[in-house]
Amino acid sequence: MTASFHRVEWSKSVLVLAGHGSLYNPDAALPVYINAEKIRRKKIFKEVYESFWKEEPSFHQTLLSIQSPFIYVVPFFLSHGFFTARVIPTEMEIEGSLSRKGDKRVGYCKAIGENPKVAEIIIQAVYQSIQDKEDDIIKDGALLLVSHGTRKNAHSKETVYKHLDWIKKRNLFRECHVFFLEEEPRVSGWKEQVKSKFVFCVPFFISEGDHSYVDVPRLMGVTVKKGLPAAYSPQKIDGFYLWYTKSVGTLEGMDQIVLEQVAQFDEYFGVLAGLAC
């Protein structure tokens, strides 16, 4: 993830990272703040804002407070589902990928999770979990992507399956599986489906919240303590050796993914600052 972005037109524009946030978990918004700050330090955009559904600053307030006429909004979500398709556009009062709000042009980019390079970040996290040693363990191992799942939007789980397919094509693992908290196949039944002795579990979540540090570990039988590094040393569970990585949204390289989503928008619709009024 070493691509560089130095577009003159972006210096006239504002970037908004739109995340979920939480009223109860202060860590839920951290990935948004961390990656916004990384991008801010690059001095590519005129300004970089954070915006949330469940905390301040809200989606609605953020766009109202921005004075710049050129605004890119990148959903800091791992799938195109209920929040990216309905909540963000409704709260920000935008329609489609390119909107006008008075004198402002708003470019609504795809969610970060829709970028194929997230699959590379997932693979990198697995290799780091074994400190880039013993490749045979990975070749004989099983990759488990564990996501939330929801009945609110039938398309929300498509993204995690796309990443699974991209990773499968690399032929790095003996097995690749997707499990969910609230849909089938459920993560509680992982032992019945996984054949490999070596298991690498990657929580397909944005933040280190209750799902990744409480719900998934409890259902899998793994011990993970919040605030401590992920379980990079394997834990033995009923004959399996299981590595448990950090949540996808907290992994290194997500700031580059954000920039690629903006660049992809420009490729399809043109640079906001260069579009005719």
From TrEMBL:
Keywords: Lyase, Metal-binding. The keyword Metal-binding applies. It comes from Methylacidiphilum infernorum (isolate V4) (Methylokorus infernorum (strain V4)). Pfam families: CbiK, CbiX. GO terms for molecular function: metal ion binding; sirohydrochlorin cobaltochelatase activity. GO terms for biological process: anaerobic cobalamin biosynthetic process. This is Sirohydrochlorin ferrochelatase. Gene3D superfamilies: 3.40.50.1400. SUPFAM superfamilies: Chelatase (SSF53800). InterPro entries: Anaerobic_Co-chelatase, CbiX-like, Sirohydro_Cobaltochel/CbiX. The keyword Metal-binding applies. Transmembrane segments: none annotated.
